[in-house]
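Input.
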Amino acid sequence: MSTPTTPGEAPAAKPKGTGGEIVVGVDGSAQSVAALRFAAELGGRLGVAVHALAVWNYPTLLYGNYYYPESDVTPEEDATRVVEGAMQAAFGTVIPDWVTAAIQRGRPADVLIEQSKDAMMLAVGTRGHGGFTGLLLGSVSSACSAHAHCPVLVVHDG
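Output.
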């Protein structure tokens, strides 16, 4: 791994899938933005790429077809806004060269665990937008901590 020669110099990002990246699960929560900031700082210091990933899926219905109720916004468009908002919240208008972002369809824990197979590290926030505010870990961060194929960094906001 190479490191920047001067502070603030962008490291040479390794291509996705080479086992040299930090994957960050983002959902728009303050904790996931904090995880993205921390991972980007760590990636910059280590000279590795950071890949922010927002995972989306259609709502699960007991009966009937998939739909996004009373809205022209699809879950995919919503995830795009989430990842763009997380990038903006974490970095403003100056996104480090070694940080990329994408969206992927699936169940968040399953997708992040699968992504961890090719990652150096997986970073997630302690909890997302779930309704149980007293929990220290959310279901996704808990599942990732238990089943990821690489080290997992769980970041608290603040």
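The radius of gyration is 16 Å.
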